[in-house]
Design a protein that fits this description.
Radius of gyration: 21 Å
Oligomer: single chain
Order of helices and strands: HHHHHHHHHHHHHHH
Number of strands: 0
Distance between the termini: 55 Å
Number of helices: 15
């Protein structure tokens, strides 16, 4: 398989590993805004600017990450790193994306434990969110034109978008959208084929619950490992999973501590799942932070390593290729719904609306790097804070 026009044999070239490390370290330091924003920034970097993959490959990877549990944006990084730099890239790219956020969250957790409160970061979110919305909107437009392969796929995407606001489960929407497109594209094959085995056996992924126990590092690690191995949906589903384990079942955290952990994950760049790093530090200091982070993210590396070789085979299969098309357009429907929610919460005054519009023009017309837009937004937020 070739990627970005380069032979697969070249993946192990040292300069490719350096490219992977540099790009995803940069994104790990600047990718604010949650999974949708992360995916949009990756699309801008690896498809538009660097041309490591094309739009269809990017969409297929996005669909594949939605079919496996774990933090989707981190899994996208691992997929792209593997395609660009082989097995060393798989590890280095993922680590470079997660590590900056994990270190920042650890530092904030240390301050939290010492001071008893979360450091204020309202100004940061105020300035960063408008350009992030523009970045996502541009990516949705680019990817949507590729994913919309006919009236049915457009209808599926719009239906997923609407049903998300009706409270329908995200995972149910992804698989339902995939199945609708798959069946519609293969109606003429139904007399010779069966659907058995297409759906992931989600129930089989569930790990047995641990017994309530006093705090230990081993139980902390295993609990985070279980969550990382079975959690589907957006990063915000993490709140429900962590509450069930750390607040209700084990009794190690209060609700307020858990909310603070999620807030810290939101105001730092990189994956929201680094909220586990915060929880680990609060419960077990630096060893706890390390083990919680390792447990939460380790399953993603394993899942990507196992599934990545099968993505081209999925695309060549008439059944699985159509399923992937349906999941792709459903993913964009969900991404659009999340973007609308974020927009309503973020564009709250004339300044933020103007920032979003200016950012959209800059990235669409002048192709300004998304990183500069995010940093510019942070600067505006800082200036607004000083202005009172």
């Amino acid at each position: 398989m070739t990627t970005g026009g380069s032979p697969a044999a070249d993946r192990h070239a040292p300069h490719r590993l350096a490219e992977v490390a540099g790009l995803f370290l940069k994104l790990g330091l600047t990718a604010f805004g949650g999974p949708a924003a992360h995916v949009a920034m990756m699309h801008e970097e690896v498809v538009k600017r660097r041309k490591w993959v094309d739009d269809q490959q990017f969409l297929d990877l996005l669909g594949a990450t939605n079919l496996i549990p774990g933090p989707n944006s981190t899994e996208m990084v691992i997929h792209l790193s593997f395609l660009r730099a082989g097995w060393p890239g798989l590890v280095i790219g993922g680590v470079c994306f997660v590590l900056p956020a994990a270190l920042m969250v650890t530092a904030l957790a240390w301050a939290y434990v010492r001071l008893g409160q979360t450091p204020a970061a309202t100004w940061l979110l105020y300035g960063i969110k408008p350009p992030v919305i523009a970045i996502i909107a541009k990516a949705l437009w680019d990817l949507g034109r590729k994913a919309a392969k006919g009236p049915l796929s457009i209808l599926v995407g719009l239906t997923v978008f609407a049903l998300y606001f009706a409270g329908v489960n995200e995972i149910a929407l992804l698989f339902a959208g995939g199945l609708v497109v798959m069946i519609a594209a293969n109606l003429h094959r139904l007399d010779r084929s069966i659907l058995k085995g297409i759906l992931l056996p989600l129930g089989a992924l569930s790990a047995p619950a641990l017994l309530a126990a006093p705090f230990t590092l081993s139980v902390l690690f295993l609990t985070c490992l279980k969550i990382g191995a079975v959690l589907y949906g957006s990063g915000y589903v993490l709140l429900a999973f962590m509450r069930a384990d750390f607040v209700t079942r084990l009794g190690w955290l209060t609700d307020q501590q858990l909310v603070d952990a999620i807030a810290i994950g939101q105001v730092t760049p990189g994956p929201l799942f680094t909220a586990a790093t915060f929880v680990g530090f609060v419960l077990g200091g630096l060893p706890g932070a390390i083990l919680a982070t390792l447990g939460m993210f380790l399953p993603s590396f394993v899942f990507v390593a196992v599934t990545n070789p099968f993505i081209p085979k999925m695309r060549s299969s008439p059944w699985l290729g159509a399923l992937l098309d349906g999941v792709n357009v459903s993913s964009l429907g969900l991404m659009g719904a999340v973007t609308m929610q974020l927009g309503r919460a973020s564009l709250i005054d004339p300044l933020t609306i103007a920032m979003a519009l200016v950012s959209l023009v800059l990235i669409a017309r002048f192709r300004i790097n998304a990183t500069w837009l995010v940093l510019g937004g942070a600067l505006v937020g800082l200036l607004r804070a000083f202005a009172g």
